[in-house]
Backbone:
Protein backbone atom coordinates (compact mmCIF):
# COMPACT_ATOMS: atom_id res chain seq x y z
CA UNK A 1 0.00 0.00 0.00
CA UNK A 2 1.28 3.45 -0.94
CA UNK A 3 0.98 6.03 1.85
CA UNK A 4 0.74 9.76 1.22
CA UNK A 5 3.00 11.04 4.00
CA UNK A 6 2.32 14.76 4.39
CA UNK A 7 3.23 15.36 8.04
CA UNK A 8 6.52 14.77 9.81
CA UNK A 9 5.17 14.12 13.28
CA UNK A 10 1.58 13.45 14.35
CA UNK A 11 -0.28 12.83 17.59
CA UNK A 12 -3.45 10.74 17.91
CA UNK A 13 -5.65 11.93 20.76
CA UNK A 14 -7.50 8.83 21.96
CA UNK A 15 -10.79 9.04 23.87
CA UNK A 16 -13.56 6.41 23.73
CA UNK A 17 -12.08 4.80 20.61
CA UNK A 18 -9.73 2.27 22.17
CA UNK A 19 -9.04 -0.11 19.30
CA UNK A 20 -6.45 -0.68 16.61
CA UNK A 21 -8.79 -1.78 13.81
CA UNK A 22 -11.32 0.48 12.10
CA UNK A 23 -10.18 3.54 13.99
CA UNK A 24 -10.56 6.52 11.65
CA UNK A 25 -8.22 8.96 13.40
CA UNK A 26 -5.54 6.36 14.08
CA UNK A 27 -5.62 4.98 10.55
CA UNK A 28 -5.54 8.38 8.85
CA UNK A 29 -2.72 9.58 11.08
CA UNK A 30 -0.65 6.52 10.24
CA UNK A 31 -1.02 7.14 6.51
CA UNK A 32 -0.18 10.85 6.73
CA UNK A 33 2.61 11.00 9.31
CA UNK A 34 6.21 9.85 9.14
CA UNK A 35 6.39 9.62 12.93
CA UNK A 36 3.42 9.01 15.20
CA UNK A 37 2.53 8.88 18.90
CA UNK A 38 -0.76 8.68 20.77
CA UNK A 39 -2.00 10.35 23.94
CA UNK A 40 -4.86 9.61 26.32
CA UNK A 41 -5.97 12.41 28.62
CA UNK A 42 -7.82 11.33 31.75
CA UNK A 43 -10.14 13.98 33.20
CA UNK A 44 -11.32 12.50 36.50
CA UNK A 45 -12.79 15.75 37.80
CA UNK A 46 -14.99 16.24 34.75
CA UNK A 47 -15.78 12.53 34.57
CA UNK A 48 -17.03 12.70 38.13
CA UNK A 49 -19.09 15.79 37.32
CA UNK A 50 -20.57 13.80 34.44
CA UNK A 51 -21.48 11.03 36.93
CA UNK A 52 -19.20 8.45 35.33
CA UNK A 53 -18.58 5.77 37.95
CA UNK A 54 -15.85 3.29 38.79
CA UNK A 55 -17.06 0.52 36.43
CA UNK A 56 -17.02 2.52 33.19
CA UNK A 57 -13.76 4.31 34.07
CA UNK A 58 -12.02 1.11 35.19
CA UNK A 59 -13.09 -0.65 31.99
CA UNK A 60 -11.91 2.29 29.87
CA UNK A 61 -8.48 2.39 31.50
CA UNK A 62 -8.11 -1.40 31.28
CA UNK A 63 -8.90 -1.31 27.55
CA UNK A 64 -6.35 1.47 27.19
CA UNK A 65 -3.67 -0.77 28.71
CA UNK A 66 -4.48 -3.50 26.20
CA UNK A 67 -4.32 -1.01 23.34
CA UNK A 68 -0.96 0.34 24.52
CA UNK A 69 0.62 -3.08 23.92
CA UNK A 70 -0.78 -3.24 20.39
CA UNK A 71 0.35 0.30 19.58
CA UNK A 72 3.89 -0.33 20.83
CA UNK A 73 4.09 -3.29 18.47
CA UNK A 74 3.50 -0.80 15.65
CA UNK A 75 6.11 1.64 17.02
CA UNK A 76 3.44 4.09 18.19
CA UNK A 77 4.15 5.11 21.80
CA UNK A 78 1.09 5.83 23.94
CA UNK A 79 1.32 8.63 26.49
CA UNK A 80 -0.98 9.12 29.46
CA UNK A 81 -1.68 12.29 31.41
CA UNK A 82 -4.14 13.18 34.16
CA UNK A 83 -5.73 16.59 33.54
CA UNK A 84 -8.50 17.03 36.11
CA UNK A 85 -10.95 19.09 34.06
CA UNK A 86 -11.79 19.55 30.39
CA UNK A 87 -11.16 23.30 30.67
CA UNK A 88 -7.46 22.65 31.32
CA UNK A 89 -6.93 20.38 28.32
CA UNK A 90 -6.31 23.00 25.57
CA UNK A 91 -3.29 24.52 27.32
CA UNK A 92 -1.93 21.09 28.28
CA UNK A 93 -2.19 19.88 24.70
CA UNK A 94 -0.52 23.07 23.55
CA UNK A 95 2.44 22.26 25.79
CA UNK A 96 2.57 18.66 24.60
CA UNK A 97 2.50 19.74 20.97
CA UNK A 98 5.30 22.21 21.55
CA UNK A 99 7.51 19.86 23.56
CA UNK A 100 7.06 16.88 21.21
CA UNK A 101 7.26 19.07 18.08
CA UNK A 102 3.89 17.84 16.78
CA UNK A 103 2.67 19.03 13.39
CA UNK A 104 -0.90 17.71 13.56
CA UNK A 105 -3.38 16.15 15.99
CA UNK A 106 -5.82 13.48 14.84
CA UNK A 107 -8.87 12.55 16.88
CA UNK A 108 -12.37 11.11 16.62
CA UNK A 109 -15.24 13.48 17.40
CA UNK A 110 -17.29 13.25 20.59
CA UNK A 111 -20.78 14.72 20.77
CA UNK A 112 -22.03 15.64 24.26
CA UNK A 113 -22.01 19.41 24.72
CA UNK A 114 -19.05 19.71 27.09
CA UNK A 115 -16.95 17.45 24.87
CA UNK A 116 -17.78 19.60 21.85
CA UNK A 117 -16.81 22.76 23.73
CA UNK A 118 -13.53 21.18 24.85
CA UNK A 119 -12.67 20.17 21.30
CA UNK A 120 -13.55 23.58 19.86
CA UNK A 121 -11.29 25.24 22.43
CA UNK A 122 -8.42 22.89 21.53
CA UNK A 123 -8.82 23.54 17.83
CA UNK A 124 -9.04 27.31 18.25
CA UNK A 125 -5.97 27.50 20.49
CA UNK A 126 -3.73 25.27 18.38
CA UNK A 127 -4.81 26.95 15.17
CA UNK A 128 -3.03 30.06 16.42
CA UNK A 129 0.16 27.99 16.61
CA UNK A 130 -0.30 26.67 13.08
CA UNK A 131 -1.06 23.13 14.30
CA UNK A 132 -3.69 21.21 12.39
CA UNK A 133 -6.39 19.47 14.49
CA UNK A 134 -8.32 16.97 12.40
CA UNK A 135 -11.60 15.47 13.67
CA UNK A 136 -13.17 12.33 12.22
CA UNK A 137 -16.69 10.98 12.52
CA UNK A 138 -16.12 7.54 13.97
CA UNK A 139 -18.68 6.84 16.69
CA UNK A 140 -21.72 6.82 14.42
CA UNK A 141 -22.55 5.34 11.02
CA UNK A 142 -23.43 8.76 9.60
CA UNK A 143 -22.02 12.03 11.00
CA UNK A 144 -24.50 13.94 13.18
CA UNK A 145 -26.19 16.58 11.09
CA UNK A 146 -26.06 14.49 7.90
CA UNK A 147 -29.46 12.84 8.34
CA UNK A 148 -32.14 15.44 7.68
CA UNK A 149 -35.78 15.72 6.69
CA UNK A 150 -36.72 17.22 3.32
CA UNK A 151 -37.06 20.55 5.09
CA UNK A 152 -33.51 20.24 6.41
CA UNK A 153 -34.65 19.67 9.98
CA UNK A 154 -33.38 17.01 12.40
CA UNK A 155 -35.52 13.94 12.86
CA UNK A 156 -37.38 13.77 16.16
CA UNK A 157 -38.85 10.30 15.71
CA UNK A 158 -36.82 7.12 15.36
CA UNK A 159 -38.56 5.27 12.52
CA UNK A 160 -38.21 7.99 9.85
CA UNK A 161 -34.65 8.62 11.07
CA UNK A 162 -33.87 4.94 10.64
CA UNK A 163 -35.43 4.91 7.16
CA UNK A 164 -33.41 7.96 6.09
CA UNK A 165 -30.14 6.62 7.54
CA UNK A 166 -30.56 3.28 5.77
CA UNK A 167 -31.32 5.09 2.52
CA UNK A 168 -28.04 6.99 2.87
CA UNK A 169 -26.07 3.85 3.71
CA UNK A 170 -27.70 1.19 1.56
CA UNK A 171 -26.19 2.24 -1.77
CA UNK A 172 -22.64 1.73 -0.60
CA UNK A 173 -20.83 -1.00 1.28
CA UNK A 174 -20.17 -0.50 4.97
CA UNK A 175 -16.38 -0.63 4.93
CA UNK A 176 -14.11 -0.97 7.90
CA UNK A 177 -10.59 0.42 7.98
CA UNK A 178 -7.48 -1.73 8.42
CA UNK A 179 -5.19 -1.33 11.39
CA UNK A 180 -2.63 1.48 11.18
CA UNK A 181 0.60 0.81 9.36
CA UNK A 182 3.67 -0.09 11.33
CA UNK A 183 5.70 3.07 11.78
CA UNK A 184 9.44 2.71 11.12
CA UNK A 185 11.33 2.11 14.34
CA UNK A 186 12.90 5.24 15.89
CA UNK A 187 16.62 5.67 15.68
CA UNK A 188 17.12 5.99 19.43
CA UNK A 189 15.33 5.68 22.77
CA UNK A 190 15.23 9.45 23.09
CA UNK A 191 13.29 9.76 19.84
CA UNK A 192 10.06 9.87 21.88
CA UNK A 193 10.81 10.64 25.55
CA UNK A 194 9.50 8.19 28.11
CA UNK A 195 8.12 11.01 30.22
CA UNK A 196 8.25 14.75 30.74
CA UNK A 197 6.97 17.30 33.24
CA UNK A 198 4.68 20.10 32.17
CA UNK A 199 4.03 23.41 33.86
CA UNK A 200 1.27 23.14 36.44
CA UNK A 201 2.65 19.91 37.88
CA UNK A 202 1.23 17.53 35.29
CA UNK A 203 3.35 14.65 34.07
CA UNK A 204 3.17 13.09 30.61
CA UNK A 205 4.23 9.47 30.85
CA UNK A 206 4.02 6.15 29.06
CA UNK A 207 2.93 4.54 32.33
CA UNK A 208 -0.81 4.07 32.77
CA UNK A 209 -1.65 4.46 36.47
CA UNK A 210 -3.64 2.09 38.64
CA UNK A 211 -5.15 4.98 40.60
CA UNK A 212 -6.98 8.15 39.63
CA UNK A 213 -8.44 10.91 41.82
CA UNK A 214 -12.09 10.11 42.68
CA UNK A 215 -11.82 6.59 41.24
CA UNK A 216 -10.91 3.08 42.24
CA UNK A 217 -9.72 1.49 39.03
CA UNK A 218 -6.81 -0.84 39.78
CA UNK A 219 -5.82 -3.42 37.21
CA UNK A 220 -7.90 -6.21 35.77
CA UNK A 221 -7.48 -9.41 37.72
CA UNK A 222 -5.19 -12.21 36.57
CA UNK A 223 -7.88 -13.59 34.27
CA UNK A 224 -8.21 -10.29 32.42
CA UNK A 225 -11.64 -9.24 33.66
CA UNK A 226 -13.17 -6.04 35.04
CA UNK A 227 -16.39 -6.71 36.95
CA UNK A 228 -16.67 -10.03 35.15
CA UNK A 229 -16.09 -8.51 31.70
CA UNK A 230 -13.06 -9.48 29.63
CA UNK A 231 -11.29 -6.34 28.45
CA UNK A 232 -9.95 -4.98 25.19
CA UNK A 233 -10.34 -5.18 21.45
CA UNK A 234 -9.59 -8.89 21.14
CA UNK A 235 -12.27 -9.67 23.73
CA UNK A 236 -14.72 -7.49 21.79
CA UNK A 237 -14.02 -9.39 18.58
CA UNK A 238 -14.54 -12.72 20.33
CA UNK A 239 -17.82 -11.43 21.76
CA UNK A 240 -18.94 -10.32 18.28
CA UNK A 241 -18.03 -13.70 16.79
CA UNK A 242 -19.90 -15.54 19.53
CA UNK A 243 -22.98 -13.41 18.99
CA UNK A 244 -22.87 -13.99 15.23
CA UNK A 245 -23.65 -17.66 15.89
CA UNK A 246 -26.88 -16.83 17.75
CA UNK A 247 -27.99 -13.55 16.16
CA UNK A 248 -30.72 -15.31 14.18
CA UNK A 249 -32.67 -15.93 17.40
CA UNK A 250 -32.03 -12.42 18.77
CA UNK A 251 -35.55 -11.09 18.23
CA UNK A 252 -37.08 -14.10 19.98
CA UNK A 253 -34.69 -14.31 22.95
CA UNK A 254 -33.52 -10.74 23.58
CA UNK A 255 -36.25 -9.86 26.10
CA UNK A 256 -35.67 -12.80 28.47
CA UNK A 257 -33.08 -11.87 31.11
CA UNK A 258 -32.44 -15.47 32.17
CA UNK A 259 -31.29 -16.30 28.62
CA UNK A 260 -27.98 -15.39 27.00
CA UNK A 261 -29.87 -13.79 24.13
CA UNK A 262 -28.25 -10.37 23.68
CA UNK A 263 -24.90 -9.39 22.20
CA UNK A 264 -23.45 -7.93 25.44
CA UNK A 265 -21.30 -5.70 23.22
CA UNK A 266 -22.38 -2.40 24.81
CA UNK A 267 -19.29 -1.99 27.07
CA UNK A 268 -17.05 -2.46 24.04
CA UNK A 269 -19.05 -0.09 21.85
CA UNK A 270 -19.00 2.52 24.59
CA UNK A 271 -15.24 2.32 25.19
CA UNK A 272 -14.59 2.03 21.47
CA UNK A 273 -12.98 -1.42 21.75
CA UNK A 274 -15.21 -2.23 18.79
CA UNK A 275 -16.85 0.06 16.24
CA UNK A 276 -20.46 0.28 15.16
CA UNK A 277 -19.27 -0.25 11.57
CA UNK A 278 -17.73 -3.59 12.51
CA UNK A 279 -21.00 -4.65 14.11
CA UNK A 280 -23.14 -3.54 11.18
CA UNK A 281 -20.77 -5.17 8.68
CA UNK A 282 -21.08 -8.51 10.52
CA UNK A 283 -24.87 -8.27 10.59
CA UNK A 284 -25.15 -7.36 6.91
CA UNK A 285 -22.86 -10.22 5.93
CA UNK A 286 -25.28 -12.64 7.62
CA UNK A 287 -28.34 -11.01 6.08
CA UNK A 288 -27.25 -11.00 2.43
CA UNK A 289 -26.60 -7.27 2.63
CA UNK A 290 -30.14 -6.40 3.71
CA UNK A 291 -30.67 -3.67 6.31
CA UNK A 292 -34.39 -4.45 6.43
CA UNK A 293 -36.12 -7.79 6.06
CA UNK A 294 -34.24 -11.02 5.70
CA UNK A 295 -33.72 -12.72 9.03
CA UNK A 296 -35.82 -11.15 11.79
CA UNK A 297 -33.09 -11.51 14.39
CA UNK A 298 -30.46 -9.78 12.29
CA UNK A 299 -32.80 -6.98 11.19
CA UNK A 300 -33.86 -6.42 14.79
CA UNK A 301 -30.25 -6.10 15.99
CA UNK A 302 -29.42 -3.67 13.18
CA UNK A 303 -32.36 -1.56 14.33
CA UNK A 304 -31.04 -1.55 17.90
CA UNK A 305 -27.64 -0.35 16.67
CA UNK A 306 -29.34 2.47 14.76
CA UNK A 307 -31.04 3.53 18.01
CA UNK A 308 -27.52 4.22 19.36
CA UNK A 309 -26.86 6.48 16.38
CA UNK A 310 -30.20 8.23 16.80
CA UNK A 311 -29.57 9.16 20.43
CA UNK A 312 -26.09 10.46 19.59
CA UNK A 313 -27.42 12.59 16.73
CA UNK A 314 -29.98 14.10 19.09
CA UNK A 315 -27.22 15.39 21.41
CA UNK A 316 -25.87 17.57 18.62
CA UNK A 317 -29.24 18.84 17.40
CA UNK A 318 -30.71 19.45 20.85
CA UNK A 319 -27.99 20.69 23.26
CA UNK A 320 -30.49 20.93 26.13
CA UNK A 321 -30.24 17.14 26.44
CA UNK A 322 -26.70 17.64 27.74
CA UNK A 323 -27.97 20.15 30.31
CA UNK A 324 -30.28 17.87 32.27
CA UNK A 325 -33.35 19.04 30.39
CA UNK A 326 -36.14 16.88 28.96
CA UNK A 327 -36.64 16.69 25.21
CA UNK A 328 -40.33 17.44 25.70
CA UNK A 329 -39.91 20.77 27.45
CA UNK A 330 -43.44 20.81 28.87
CA UNK A 331 -42.61 17.76 31.00
CA UNK A 332 -40.36 19.94 33.15
CA UNK A 333 -43.61 20.98 34.87
CA UNK A 334 -44.15 17.49 36.31
CA UNK A 335 -44.25 17.57 40.14
CA UNK A 336 -41.65 14.86 40.61
CA UNK A 337 -41.06 13.26 43.97
CA UNK A 338 -37.63 13.58 45.56
CA UNK A 339 -38.04 11.06 48.36
CA UNK A 340 -34.49 10.04 49.28
CA UNK A 341 -35.49 6.99 51.32
CA UNK A 342 -37.65 5.56 48.56
CA UNK A 343 -34.94 6.20 45.99
CA UNK A 344 -32.39 4.38 48.14
CA UNK A 345 -34.71 1.37 48.38
CA UNK A 346 -35.05 1.35 44.58
CA UNK A 347 -31.28 1.69 44.23
CA UNK A 348 -30.59 -1.25 46.57
CA UNK A 349 -33.22 -3.50 45.04
CA UNK A 350 -35.47 -3.45 48.11
CA UNK A 351 -38.77 -2.31 46.58
CA UNK A 352 -40.70 -5.50 47.28
CA UNK A 353 -41.32 -5.97 43.53
CA UNK A 354 -39.22 -9.03 42.62
CA UNK A 355 -38.35 -8.26 38.99
CA UNK A 356 -37.36 -4.69 39.90
CA UNK A 357 -35.27 -5.82 42.85
CA UNK A 358 -33.55 -8.60 40.90
CA UNK A 359 -32.68 -6.17 38.11
CA UNK A 360 -31.24 -3.55 40.46
CA UNK A 361 -29.21 -6.19 42.26
CA UNK A 362 -27.87 -7.42 38.93
CA UNK A 363 -26.74 -3.86 38.23
CA UNK A 364 -25.12 -3.42 41.63
CA UNK A 365 -23.34 -6.79 41.47
CA UNK A 366 -22.27 -6.93 37.81
CA UNK A 367 -22.27 -3.28 36.62
CA UNK A 368 -24.66 -4.28 33.84
CA UNK A 369 -28.39 -4.76 33.40
CA UNK A 370 -30.42 -6.54 30.76
CA UNK A 371 -32.03 -4.02 28.40
CA UNK A 372 -35.62 -5.14 28.96
CA UNK A 373 -35.09 -4.71 32.68
CA UNK A 374 -33.62 -1.23 32.22
CA UNK A 375 -37.01 -0.20 30.85
CA UNK A 376 -38.90 -1.99 33.63
CA UNK A 377 -36.95 -0.39 36.50
CA UNK A 378 -36.96 3.03 34.82
CA UNK A 379 -40.72 2.89 34.37
CA UNK A 380 -41.20 1.79 37.97
CA UNK A 381 -39.11 4.69 39.30
CA UNK A 382 -40.43 7.45 37.04
CA UNK A 383 -44.06 6.35 36.74
CA UNK A 384 -45.13 4.14 39.67
CA UNK A 385 -42.95 6.04 42.17
CA UNK A 386 -43.02 9.35 40.22
CA UNK A 387 -39.40 10.04 41.17
CA UNK A 388 -37.48 12.33 38.82
CA UNK A 389 -36.02 10.27 35.98
CA UNK A 390 -32.78 12.26 36.26
CA UNK A 391 -32.06 10.56 39.58
CA UNK A 392 -32.27 7.18 37.88
CA UNK A 393 -30.26 8.38 34.89
CA UNK A 394 -27.50 9.54 37.23
CA UNK A 395 -27.50 6.26 39.17
CA UNK A 396 -27.16 4.25 35.96
CA UNK A 397 -24.26 6.45 34.81
CA UNK A 398 -22.50 5.82 38.12
CA UNK A 399 -23.07 2.06 38.13
CA UNK A 400 -23.05 0.82 34.53
CA UNK A 401 -19.92 -0.53 32.87
CA UNK A 402 -21.43 0.51 29.51
CA UNK A 403 -22.50 3.98 30.71
CA UNK A 404 -22.89 5.93 27.46
CA UNK A 405 -24.43 9.34 28.05
CA UNK A 406 -26.44 9.48 24.81
CA UNK A 407 -27.95 5.99 25.10
CA UNK A 408 -28.57 6.27 28.84
CA UNK A 409 -30.24 9.67 28.56
CA UNK A 410 -32.28 8.57 25.56
CA UNK A 411 -33.43 5.37 27.23
CA UNK A 412 -34.46 7.06 30.46
CA UNK A 413 -36.34 9.82 28.66
CA UNK A 414 -38.06 7.31 26.38
CA UNK A 415 -39.34 5.34 29.36
CA UNK A 416 -40.24 8.40 31.43
CA UNK A 417 -42.23 9.82 28.47
CA UNK A 418 -40.17 13.02 28.51
CA UNK A 419 -38.06 12.27 25.45
CA UNK A 420 -38.18 11.99 21.71
CA UNK A 421 -40.04 8.96 20.41
CA UNK A 422 -41.15 8.46 23.98
CA UNK A 423 -43.55 5.80 25.11
CA UNK A 424 -46.99 7.47 25.38
CA UNK A 425 -47.47 8.78 28.90
CA UNK A 426 -50.36 6.37 29.45
CA UNK A 427 -48.12 3.39 28.71
CA UNK A 428 -46.71 2.31 32.04
CA UNK A 429 -44.83 -0.97 32.34
CA UNK A 430 -46.63 -3.29 34.74
CA UNK A 431 -43.70 -4.93 36.55
CA UNK A 432 -45.72 -8.01 37.50
CA UNK A 433 -46.83 -8.68 33.94
CA UNK A 434 -43.33 -8.01 32.64
CA UNK A 435 -42.01 -10.52 35.15
CA UNK A 436 -44.59 -13.17 34.26
CA UNK A 437 -43.99 -12.71 30.54
CA UNK A 438 -40.21 -12.48 30.39
CA UNK A 439 -39.12 -14.50 33.43
CA UNK A 440 -41.97 -17.03 33.49
CA UNK A 441 -40.18 -19.61 35.64
CA UNK A 442 -38.65 -17.01 37.94
CA UNK A 443 -35.12 -18.15 37.03
CA UNK A 444 -33.72 -14.64 36.89
CA UNK A 445 -35.48 -13.56 40.08
CA UNK A 446 -34.19 -16.59 41.98
CA UNK A 447 -30.62 -15.78 40.92
CA UNK A 448 -30.63 -12.24 42.31
CA UNK A 449 -33.36 -12.48 44.98
CA UNK A 450 -32.52 -15.83 46.57
CA UNK A 451 -34.79 -15.14 49.55
CA UNK A 452 -37.68 -15.89 47.16
CA UNK A 453 -36.27 -19.08 45.67
CA UNK A 454 -38.64 -21.31 47.66
CA UNK A 455 -41.76 -19.77 46.12
CA UNK A 456 -43.65 -21.35 43.25
CA UNK A 457 -43.18 -20.16 39.68
CA UNK A 458 -46.51 -18.36 39.97
CA UNK A 459 -46.11 -16.78 43.40
CA UNK A 460 -42.57 -15.51 42.84
CA UNK A 461 -43.69 -12.64 40.61
CA UNK A 462 -46.01 -11.07 43.22
CA UNK A 463 -45.09 -12.80 46.46
CA UNK A 464 -47.05 -13.01 49.70
CA UNK A 465 -45.32 -11.69 52.83
CA UNK A 466 -42.01 -13.54 52.91
CA UNK A 467 -39.45 -13.56 55.71
CA UNK A 468 -36.39 -11.53 54.76
CA UNK A 469 -38.07 -9.82 51.81
CA UNK A 470 -39.48 -6.26 52.03
CA UNK A 471 -43.11 -5.25 51.64
CA UNK A 472 -43.89 -3.55 48.35
CA UNK A 473 -42.81 0.09 48.38
CA UNK A 474 -45.92 1.52 46.72
CA UNK A 475 -49.30 0.60 45.31
CA UNK A 476 -48.36 -0.19 41.72
CA UNK A 477 -51.86 0.38 40.34
CA UNK A 478 -52.38 3.64 42.19
CA UNK A 479 -48.95 4.85 41.09
CA UNK A 480 -49.81 4.17 37.48
CA UNK A 481 -53.08 6.08 37.77
CA UNK A 482 -51.35 9.04 39.43
CA UNK A 483 -48.67 9.22 36.71
CA UNK A 484 -51.25 9.17 33.93
CA UNK A 485 -53.19 11.98 35.57
CA UNK A 486 -50.05 14.09 36.05
CA UNK A 487 -49.00 13.73 32.42
CA UNK A 488 -52.53 14.26 31.13
CA UNK A 489 -52.73 17.60 32.96
CA UNK A 490 -49.60 19.03 31.32
CA UNK A 491 -50.23 22.16 29.27
Residues:
Amino acid sequence: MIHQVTMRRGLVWLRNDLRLNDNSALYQASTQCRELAAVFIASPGTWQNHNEGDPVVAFRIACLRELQIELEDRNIPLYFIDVPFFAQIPEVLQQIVERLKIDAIYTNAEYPLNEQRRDTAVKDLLKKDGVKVQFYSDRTLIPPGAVRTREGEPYKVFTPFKRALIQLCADSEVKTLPRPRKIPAPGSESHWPKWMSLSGGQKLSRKIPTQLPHYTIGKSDNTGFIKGWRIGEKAAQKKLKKFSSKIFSYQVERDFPALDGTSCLSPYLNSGAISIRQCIAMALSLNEGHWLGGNDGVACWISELIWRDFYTHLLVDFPRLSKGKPFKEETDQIPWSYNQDQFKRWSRGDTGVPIVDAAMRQLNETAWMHNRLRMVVASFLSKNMLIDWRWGERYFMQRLIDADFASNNGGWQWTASTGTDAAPYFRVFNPYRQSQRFDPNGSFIRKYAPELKGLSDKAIHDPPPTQGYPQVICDVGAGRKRAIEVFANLK
Q: What stands out?
A: The chain has a mean pLDDT of 94. DSSP finds 19 helices and nine strands in the chain. The first helix runs from residue 24 to 32. Residues 336 and 388 are 5 Å apart (CA to CA).
